[in-house]
Amino acid sequence: MRQAQRSRTTSESSVSVSVNLDGTGQADISTSVPFFDHMLTALSKHSLIDMEIRAEGDTHIDVHHTVEDTSIVLGQALSEALGDKKGIRRYGLAAVPLDESLARCVVDISGRPYFVHEGEPEGQQYHLIGGHFTGSMTSHSLESIAFHAGLTVHLDLLRGRDPHHIVEAQFKAFARALREAVEFDGRNSAVPSTKGVL
Fold first, then answer.
1. How much is the pTM?
2. Which one, 121, 171, 183, 189, has least CB within 10 Å?
3. Is 74 left (phi over 0), alpha (psi -120 to 50) or beta?
4. What is the per-residue pLDDT across 128-165, written as a single tens digit (0 to 9) for each?
5. How far apart are CA 39 and CA 11, in angstroms?
6. How many CB atoms lie within 10 A of CB 84?
7. 3-class secondary structure per residue, the chain
C-alpha cells in the first residue's frame, strides 16, 4: 500500500497528515478552517486518496498560516507515498463543472515542481468564503501542495461567477487529474520517464 504520514510544528501551526493513495476517498479532516475542510474533503473524495488531516493554528490572526502549512505537509505526504513512482500513469487531465463554473487541470508527477494558475475573475482573490477562507488561498494551497509533492500543475478556470463554485470546481479538477496521474498503468511497470527516474 502506498501510504505515508507526515507532521510539522511551528510557532504558527501544528499539522499532521496521513494519506493512502490506494484508498477509496475516505476523509477525516479538521483544520479549524471550515471551508478549507470542505475543499480537502472534496480533494480526497474525488482523487480516491484516503486522507486524515489534523491542523491547529493561529487562525485568530489569519487562516493563511494554517492553510499554507497544511498544504505543505499534504504535499510532503503525497511525495513520500508515491515512492519511486514505478508503474504510475504519471499524467492526469480533468475538466470539472460546478453549475456555471468550469475548471480544467493537468497534473504531471514530474518531480519538477511548477504551478500555472489562470482564469479567475478579478476580485476573486479578495472574496471571503465561509467567513474565513479568502479566494487567494485557492492558488496558494494548490501551489504549496504541488511544490512539496513534486508536481507540475496547470490549472485553468475556464468560466465561473460564484466564488464558492469557482474554488470548488478547481479543487475537484485537481483531484480528478491527480487520481488519474497516481493510478497504476497496467501496461507499464517501470518509471514512466526516458530518464528512468522521476
1. 0.98
2. 189
3. alpha
4. 999 899 999 999 999 999 999 999 999 999 999 999 99
5. 25
6. 9
7. CCEEEEEEECCCEEEEEEEECCCCCCEEEECCCHHHHHHHHHHHHHHCCEEEEEEEECCCCCCHHHHHHHHHHHHHHHHHHHCCCCCECCEEEEEEEECCEEEEEEEECCCCCEEEEECCCCCHHHCEECCCEECHHHHHHHHHHHHHHCCEEEEEEEECCCHHHHHHHHHHHHHHHHHHHHCECCCCCCCCCCCCCC
Nearest to 164 by CA among 154, 172, 156: 172
- Residue 103 cell numbers, joined: 475548471
pLDDT one-digit tens code per residue, 108-131:
999 999 999 999 999 999 999 998
Beta 50-57 vs 27-30: how paired, if at all?
Answer: parallel
Q: Which residues contact 55 (CB under 8 A, 6 or more apart)?
A: 13, 14, 15, 16, 30, 31, 32, 33, 66, 69, 70
Distance separating alpha carbons of residues 91 and 52, to the nearest angstrom: 25
Report the DSSP beta bridge partners of residue 33. Answer: none
* Residue type, position 38, single letter: H
Side chain identity, residue 85: K
Contact 72, 45 (CB under 8 A): no
